[in-house]
Amino acid sequence: MTGDTPGAEAILELDDVTVTFTAGPPLRRIRLDAMRHVSLSVAKGETLGLVGESGSGKTTTSRVALGLHRPTSGAVRFDGRPFPRRRRELAGRMQAVLQHPHWSLNPRMRVGQSVAEPLAVLGRPVGDLVTEMLGHVGLEESFAARYPHELSGGQRQRVSIARALVTRPDFIVFDEAVSALDVSVQVQILNLVKDLQAEYGFSALFISHDLGAVRYVADRIAVMRSGEVVETADTATFYTAPAHEYSQRLLEAL
Amino acid sequence: MKRLDRLSLGGLACLLVLVVFALGSLAGAGGDPDAIVGPRLRPPGPGWWLGTDNLGRSMLPRVMEGVGTTLLLSSIAVLVTAAVSATFGIIAGYRGGYLNELVMRLVEVLYSFPAIVLAILVAAVLGPGQVAALASIVLATIPLMTRLVRAAAVAVSQRDYVTSAVISGARLPRVLGRHVLPNVAGTIAVQGTYALSVGIAVEGGLSFLGFGVQPPQASLGVLIQRGGTYMIAAPWLILGPGVVLVVAILAINVVGDGLRDQLEPRETRSLT
Ligand SMILES: Nc1ncnc2c1ncn2[C@@H]1O[C@H](COP(=O)(O)OP(=O)(O)OP(=O)(O)O)[C@@H](O)[C@H]1O
Ligand SMILES: [Mg+2]
After folding, report:
1. What is the CATH number of the domain that holds A15?
2. Phi and psi at residue B170, in whole multiples of 5°?
3. What's the DSSP call for residue A69?
4. Would A160 be classed as within a structural domain?
5. Contact list, B269 vs chain A (CB under 8 Å)
6. Who has the most CB within 10 Å: B23, B66, B108, B154?
7. Which residue puts its alpha carbon closest to atom 22 of ligand 1?
8. Would you say residue A144 lies in a domain?
9. Which helix (H) or strand (E) holds B80?
10. Predicted-complex ipTM score
């Protein structure tokens, strides 16, 4: 079955979530289930790795988890409560580090403005937080005045992480956050994520098609295939003795 | 920031000269456009460097005034177009759905009329004059600008920084104002220059037909229309304003190309 960790308090729970997209003209409308009866939970302080091939529904799952997409059926709970109708009520408590380093930062905003934005949105004072956050992700203070095109891909993802952390969220989604980076830079960023998690204690949903990267950061792994979660297991168990035939195939390909 | 290339700089210089020309006319340089200074229909010579018209007025101040009228009218119209197209293009592109459908259908209907037909219809409704010319330019340039701004806004809306802002709880005005607008501004600027040249052409055409700017006020269209009457006897009457019109349109397009080369690669860079 899908994996609830009994005992541990969950920050995020998806309960029997289905998302159906419709496309095409009326009458010949195509229906596609991007998520089918997905149940997942992320415990406080835990990192859940979500793997699966392209199109399996990982990003859709993250969009539902972030409240960007309302499920067609099923329930989402954040910190034990049903998702509020207005997702702004949860602003600052959940953040995301997204896929593409090139588009993760607004090219017309200075790095410092980007990092400060989540605070500005909430009307919170910025103070020295930008400098502090940049320091935490290993960037000097001077980066605040730069524009994204003056940064490398790895530096940009560090800035994205700083921006995600600035409101001290309970929950962060990493959607293919390191996939576009060089392997050596990937390792640096993954280490950074682990260190910051130890310090800040946020929970994370770490999405990737790269099983190696997920293994590095995740406490548990969920495997998706065509919209369904086919297996959930502890990382150690998953990589040594995958239960589902599809997981075995994924691991063999590694 | 990269600099404009030489050709565009040349275009920009031409435009500046025309603007100085137009401003000079306001300051009275070149003489009184309405004063009769000599015999009628004289070829260019001392005292009347672009010749005299059928009333004996010097063409030089008249062309200067005409350039000013045409540029001012077109520029105001393009600013209106830019404001309207940016608003609707950005909202339609970001929001999608029914609003998007509605805006795009309206724009398509407008687009299906040739500019000059549209202009004549407008003149018929509003009556000939500057307001009709202005409205015509706006209606003629809105469709293309709105479409292109919308297309750019659709692309920008899907970028991760917009999603991140929404996740952070940013409200619509912030998302559109801070994230979408600045990243489609390049498209607006480039299309604005092209729209300006369309505007000059529409003003010329409409005034030429007698539906736009009304004499005695001079505009390039008015002067060309008047000049056409004496094309054989006094070709300089049409040559002066005609050349200025062509130069203005060429210069603006060249500047537009330069702006596009400078701004758009960044706007439309593919996801590599
Ligand atoms: N807005 C949408 N409209 C229609 N179909 C969609 C939409 N978003 C996603 N889909 C479809 O839902 C399915 C799951 O997409 P999703 O982006 O969640 O996959 P993914 O696992 O994140 O893939 P990848 O690894 O390529 O990022 C795909 O078949 C996709 O085409
Ligand atoms: Mg995805």
Report:
1. 3.40.50.300
2. -65, 140
3. S
4. no
5. 102
6. B66
7. A59
8. no
9. helix B59-95
10. 0.90
Whether A25 is covered by a domain: the verdict is: yes
Distance from the CA of A55 to the center of ligand 1, in angstroms?
5
Domain annotation for chain B: domains and CATH numbers: 6-241 (1.10.3720.10)
Q: Output the ligand 1 site: residues, CB below 6 A.
A: A 21, 23, 32, 34, 52, 54-60, 209
Determine the length of chain A.
254
Q: Which helix (H) or strand (E) holds B95?
A: helix B59-95
From CA B60, how far away is CA B51, in angstroms rounded? 8
Question: What average pLDDT does range B106-126 have in this prediction?
Answer: 90
The answer to whether residue A88 neighbours chain B at the CB level (below 8 Å) is yes
Closest C-alpha among B199, B91, B51 to residue B139: B199
B179·A106 Cβ contact <8 A: yes
| Residues A228, A221: Cα–Cα separation, whole Å | 14
Span from the CA of B111 to the centroid of ligand 2 (angstroms)? 38
What residues in A contact B266, CB-CB < 8 Å?
Answer: 107
Spatial strand order of the sheet with A220-225 comes to: A94-97, A171-175, A203-207, A47-51, A220-225, A228-234
- Model pLDDT for residues A202-253, shown as the tens digit of each residue: 999 999 988 888 998 999 999 999 999 999 999 988 888 888 888 888 888 7
Q: A110 in contact with B at a CB cutoff of 8 Å?
A: no
Does residue A98 lie within any of the structural domains? yes
How distant is the Cα of B195 from the closest Cα of chain A, in angstroms? Answer: 25
- Taking CB atoms and an 8 Å cutoff, what residues of chain A touch B271? 100, 102-103
pLDDT surpassing 70 at residue B137: yes
Q: Please tell me the total count of domains within chain A.
A: 1
Q: Which residue of A has its CA nearest to B167?
A: A95
